[in-house]
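Table S2 (continued). Query chain:
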Amino acid sequence: MSHRENMKKPEFMSDEDWEMIKDQTSSLERIRRDAKADVEDYLANPEGRSTGEGGPSGLPTLLLTCVGRKSGEKRTTPLVFLQNGDDMIVVGSLAGYDTHPAWYLNVGANPQCWVQRDHNKMAAVARDATEQERAELWPKLTAMFPPWGYFQQQTDRPFAVVILSPTGPA
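Corresponding output:
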């Protein structure tokens, strides 16, 4: 069950950042529209995105492309990620909404996917983190991007923690 209607500004966030986050996550339609624009911007200006230096968020960002479980078409979404050895860790938060993001459902149906980091494109396989991996990764993830911890409190749905393991060039 979502608790988004009762969200209060977290202590770690400025008033300005809080208003921006509330606006950017006000609806699933807004999140999808912004993600589409972010993909276009990333593709037009990929340099530095994987380090966070080239994008507007200042966070390391990759593009995940997976095959739609219903459409069979390739779908691309920008995701903040944590590098963990060769693997990239992403979170299926969808800003605390009660449904998993479509990309997560898609990689659940077909774990073969593609990742773009800056200009570098690679094939990868996606899998859910084990409970032990999640317990080890979650504090690192929320330290990197505190809103994940906050949004996790807004829903009873556990956020997916997904490990993307490179398998070769795209």
